[in-house]
Specification:
4-stranded mixed beta sheet, 2 domains, 18 helices, single chain, 64% helix, alpha+beta
């Protein structure tokens, strides 16, 4: 019972943080494009959610938060067979819930949360030997997102090494169908992005945790039992690093599969930790403490990033600026009775449309102060720091 309470607390705290974060950011341009013009599953999910709950940020992001919370529960259940201690399982899902990349995926409108959930659902069903339902999930995933081609490759590798002919043929067929339906971009000039890819993974995990994550995957490769989670994570990481030697990758196609091996990393750590006498555990304890501190710090920055504007000379360099401004600008426009206007910035125009500011010919909104004179200056400021200034003109 105590373990269930801890599980509930992890899920509840993660959910509350994400709900807070959903209210603290504005819709981004890519999200607005998906909302208004998308033809994929993500579009239909947000369209349904906003139809039921209204066109607002909470309704826009709620489905992905729910997928994230369900993924935490699935990861907890998946880790039970190989993480025998309750504390290990709770720490595993806590670290997963603190990953900067996972929180970003859960907070934004994208397919990442759906991809993680379906992958974990497949693993959960397969580990419980519900083979037919697991294969049904795998087949359905073909119609969800093109990034599942990476999962098919990883499972193909798993099938070869474990002599599972049924999975081998299924994943080969699904891989071919995915390539036919979506393709896979290998164009452009050959160019090395290996270091860039490592840097992005370091951001997704946090640098210290990523280093240990690489070590854990390698240790399992040479010394320990390799289960389905390891094959998915290891081969997704391997394929992304190999392809990055030639071209720049969309890491959102790989990252959802790589992060799933967090429980395995916890197993490797505590296997090493517990074989030592307490006096020889100090270095492990220090390293673990630094990782947790780093994760908590990075997570706090994700959810409470607006105060950073006070520390940055140029607001445009803020990492989340593309998800700020629009909501506050729409509110200020509505306060003065402006419901439609013309704006040269097409990306901002689409973002404002989500908040009810349509295109019109009565007003012009500009970031430049014209000689003719403006009727209203709108300053968007966070924590006393002006981030963007707009000038409203009447036509």
């Amino acid at each position: 019972m105590k373990e269930n309470i801890l599980l509930f607390l992890v899920v509840a705290i993660s959910g509350l943080c994400l709900i807070y974060g959903s209210q603290d950011i504005s819709i981004g341009y890519d999200e607005a494009s998906t909302f208004f013009y998308g033809k994929n599953l993500t579009h239909y999910i947000v369209a349904f959610s906003t139809k039921i709950l209204g066109q607002n940020d909470f309704a826009l992001r709620l489905p992905f938060i729910i997928f994230h919370l369900l993924s935490i529960i699935l990861l907890y259940k998946i880790s039970k067979p190989f993480l025998k201690k309750k504390i290990d399982r709770i720490l595993s899902i806590t670290i997963y819930a603190l990953l900067p990349g996972v929180n970003s995926v859960a907070l934004l409108v994208n397919s990442g949360s759906i991809v993680i959930f379906l992958t974990l659902l497949f693993v959960y069903l397969h580990m419980r030997e519900k083979i037919i339902p697991s294969y049904i999930v795998l087949i359905l995933s073909l119609f969800v997102d093109n990034s599942f081609v990476i999962l098919y490759l990883a499972l193909f590798s798993y099938a070869i090494f474990n002599r599972k002919s049924d999975m081998l043929f299924l994943t080969l067929i699904l891989f071919g169908l995915s390539m036919y339906m979506y393709g896979f971009d290998t164009g452009g000039k050959p160019k090395g992005y290996f270091i860039d890819t490592l840097g992005i993974y370091a951001i997704i995990f946090s640098p210290l945790l990523f280093l240990y994550f690489i070590y854990a995957l390698y240790r399992i490769l040479i010394k320990e039992e390799k289960n389905l989670l390891w094959y998915i994570s290891f081969f997704s990481l391997l394929f992304s690093l190999l392809l990055s030697l030639r071209q720049k990758l969309l890491l959102e196609d790989f990252a959802p599969f790589v992060v799933l091996a967090i429980p395995l990393m916890i197993k490797v750590f505590f296997n090493s930790y517990r074989v030592r006498l307490p006096v020889f555990r100090k270095l492990h304890t220090l390293f673990f403490g630094l990782i947790i501190f780093s994760l908590v710090s990075n997570t706090l920055v994700i959810f409470f990033n607006k105060p950073l504007y006070r520390l940055i000379d140029e607001p445009s360099k803020h990492f989340a600026i593309n998800y700020h401004i629009a909501k506050e600008l729409a509110f200020e426009l509505k306060v003065i009775g402006v419901q439609n206007l013309s704006i040269r910035d097409e990306k901002m125009a689409l973002r404002l449309k989500f908040y009810g500011i349509e295109k019109g010919e009565d007003y012009i909104l500009s970031t430049k102060k014209e000689a003719d004179g403006y009727i209203k200056q709108i300053d968007i400021a966070y924590f006393g720091k002006s981030v963007k200034t707009f000038y409203l003109y009447r036509i």
